[in-house]
């Protein structure tokens, strides 16, 4: 079987269809960040192949600051083609349609240029502080409304850290942890209150994730809003919280005035020849 985006999407679709009703119920639970997950998304051998296709951390871009410490890549043609195929499998119209049915979010479009998606890798000591994702796409035309996070590291126990945390009641209260378990796909809403983070990786090995984001003209909220990616300290990091809030506040102010990015993002998949 060739592992192209269409056959991968066939498999994902089949699996989502079986669990659709349960996923829809889970996603719509009240009083928490709308989210759900599905295990055993792909046959184990295929999920393992995807993990094996990941580049070494050194071949990926590093994002390192007070906010986060992780590796990412969006220029997918630099790597094993299977990675590009799995990223774009999640952008198949049939997958978008069933995900719309599960989440109730309408008129979604994928992030074709991988403005924020692609692959990410987190190794020992890496982390992602609590944050709200940027509210819009690069041109500020569409809302970012859904994250699709597919974890592919085999045998990754919860004790390794690197787990997704959803701060349902804000960053001052306790979080809900979603184990970034092998072959698990998480769907999570992104809006004005979807605070989330990745706990520090505390063991050797690499926590690998295939990420996709969906956009929509309609916000996943009742009203319009705009914000840049905004980071916060964890409850035990009060000083860092202040610094990160100043940092987000300044960036937000600049963007509200200029409407466009001051610094062009490098995290984008350039498909033309003059990259
Ligand atoms: O890697 C994860 O589990 C979450 C990543 C994240 O927060 C994001 O991509 O917006
Ligand atoms: Fe995020």
UniProtKB/TrEMBL annotation:
<protein>
    <submittedName>
        <fullName>2OG-Fe(II) oxygenase</fullName>
    </submittedName>
</protein>
<dbReference type="InterPro" id="IPR044862">
    <property type="entry name" value="Pro_4_hyd_alph_FE2OG_OXY"/>
</dbReference>
<comment type="similarity">
    <text>Belongs to the iron/ascorbate-dependent oxidoreductase family.</text>
</comment>
<dbReference type="InterPro" id="IPR005123">
    <property type="entry name" value="Oxoglu/Fe-dep_dioxygenase_dom"/>
</dbReference>
<dbReference type="GO" id="GO:0046872">
    <property type="term" value="F:metal ion binding"/>
</dbReference>
<feature type="domain" description="Fe2OG dioxygenase">
    <location>
        <begin position="109"/>
        <end position="217"/>
    </location>
</feature>
<dbReference type="GO" id="GO:0016491">
    <property type="term" value="F:oxidoreductase activity"/>
</dbReference>
<keyword id="KW-0408">Iron</keyword>
<keyword id="KW-0560">Oxidoreductase</keyword>
<keyword id="KW-0479">Metal-binding</keyword>
<dbReference type="Pfam" id="PF13640">
    <property type="entry name" value="2OG-FeII_Oxy_3"/>
</dbReference>
